Amino acid sequence: MSHRSLAARAITVGYDGRDVLRGASLDVPAGRRTAILGANGSGKTTLLRCLAGAVTPASGAVELDGEALRHTRSGLRAHRQEVQLVLQDPDDQLFSADVYRDVAYGPANLGLPAAEVRERVESALTLLGIDGLSRRPVHQLSYGERKRVATAGAVAMRPCVLLLDEPTAGLDPRAEVEMFDAVSRLESAHTTVVLSTHDVALALDWAHSVAVVVDGTVVQGDPVTVLSDAELLARARLHVPWPLALAAELAADGVLPPDVRPRNAAELRRALTAGRVQ
Ligand SMILES: Nc1ncnc2c1ncn2[C@@H]1O[C@H](COP(=O)(O)OP(=O)(O)OP(=O)(O)O)[C@@H](O)[C@H]1O
Fold first, then answer.
1. Bridge-based pairing state of the strands 209-214 and 34-38
2. What percent of the chain has pLDDT over 70?
3. Could you say which of 17, 32, 161, 237 has the lowest number of CB atoms within 10 Å?
4. Which helix (H) or strand (E) holds 100?
5. How many whole angstroms from 23 Cα to the centroid of ligand 1?
6. How far apart (Å, rounded) are the C-alpha atoms in residues 258 and 244?
């Protein structure tokens, strides 16, 4: 398994004759963390579904390592071995009676030997910190537990790119930290991670690149630049993340220089003690 780049090139896609995305482009360079932000209904899930090959755009292309995805049976099958999507609601994804069988479903479907399926399931459950749930009936699990099981199912496919649709929505703060611990372990194992979220502070702190879905298109750039753009964020029904908003207020009070752009509490603290970030 190795990092691979994924991209959407000028895709137009909609439902029932109504376009959701109109010529939207997104770049996910290999190994770079990409966060997708946007209002409810803006098209984040639609974009992720296109990247995963689950929805076919009316025009434009999805490319993996520069090669256009072919929406044929074999093209999609090959794509899904490399790119996995974890849906926002785990109940849209889970269907087996118990956790083990659910996580094993994908690898077993690839026709892998039983020993390899077992090894993949066990390592995915360990990576998500849910070894103890292996024999539990899925319907008895809490929402947060089901979310981890759904993620383990995608991880067991050993994708090069993992797309996570709102992975922290509905999780308690500790579970959120644990989800990101799991994401870090995946990155160490050469999986490129893309996620959608409404959490602007999380995107600022975590991502290498931020993409805002707004008015049917995508505005992508480095997190500090994009998330300092109050006009863009207002159009997207988002707000400036607190570290940048607080630094701007402290700059207005003359406490910080105007060009300080902290990405998190630690950077803000450093700026306050040292006079500026870096
Ligand atoms: N299968 C579908 N059939 C018809 N319309 C759909 C379908 N899926 C999504 N839509 C519509 O497309 C638009 C974009 O939906 P999408 O789920 O991509 O948005 P989102 O940005 O992920 O929203 P949220 O933040 O609420 O999860 C919405 O208006 C939605 O109602």
1. parallel
2. 98
3. 17
4. helix 99-109
5. 17
6. 11
Q: Which atom of ligand 1 is nearest to the CA of 47?
A: 18
Query: Which residue among 13, 45, 49, 195 is best mutated to probe the pocket of ligand 1, counting the most ligand atoms within 8 A of its Cβ?
Result: 45
Q: How confident is the model at residue 66 (pLDDT cuts 50, 70, 90)?
A: very high
Distance CA 33, CA 220 (A): 12
Predicted confidence at residue 278, as pLDDT, reads 47
User: In which residue are the tokens 């803000």 written?
Assistant: 268
Q: Are 48 and 87 in contact (CB under 8 A)?
A: no
Q: Give nearest CA residue, ligand 1 atom 27.
A: 40
Return the SS3 of 15: strand
The pLDDT assigned to 276 comes to: 47
Which atom of ligand 1 lies closest to the CA of 42?
A: 21
Whose Cα sits closest to atom 13 in ligand 1?
A: 41
Side-chain-side CA neighbours of 19 within 13 Å: the count stands at: 14
Answer for the pair 77, 20: CB distance below 8 angstroms, yes or no: no
Cβ(251)–Cβ(257) below 8 Å: yes
Whether 151 contacts 167, CB under 8 Å: yes
pLDDT, one tens digit per residue, over 200-253 is 999 999 999 999 999 999 999 999 999 999 999 999 999 999 999 999 999 999
* Secondary structure of residue 81 in the 3-state scheme: helix
Question: In this predicted structure, what is the pLDDT of residue 275?
Answer: 55
Calpha distance 2→14 (Å, rounded): 32
144 conformational bin, left if phi > 0, alpha if psi -120 to 50, beta if neither: alpha
